[in-house]
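(Protein data)
===
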Amino acid sequence: MLFKGLYILLFSLCCFEFINAQEAITLEKALSIAATNSPSLQKAELSREQSRQTLIAQKAALKAKVSLSLAPITYNKGQNFNSQNSDWYRYKSLNSSGTFEISQPILLTNTTVSLVNTFGWQNASSDNYGTATSDKSFINDLYVKLK
């Protein structure tokens, strides 16, 4: 019985020698582990990153914006009956237009300055009382807009 107790004691001492549950670390390493695993410090780091991304988005909003909108082709054709003269008024038009705009926000005055160019082309014709008219025209409207 004594040998059995002695074997158990030697076996457990050998096992505890190989199982090393704790490790000696330096103060710097302990502070580093605490900093990386601290929930409050992790929350502060995430908050800082969110603020940094918000600042990047705000800076991007201050850059100039360029837009182009097009109405490739519009075709209209119609006729109306004039009951006073008992005659038909016929018309048709073909046009294309677009708008080009550059907008720049101004931070100091909280306004936006825009340079807008509207351009287009139209081919219109009509027939009234047997008289046909035709018109081909171009438009180009350039202006500055403050918002």
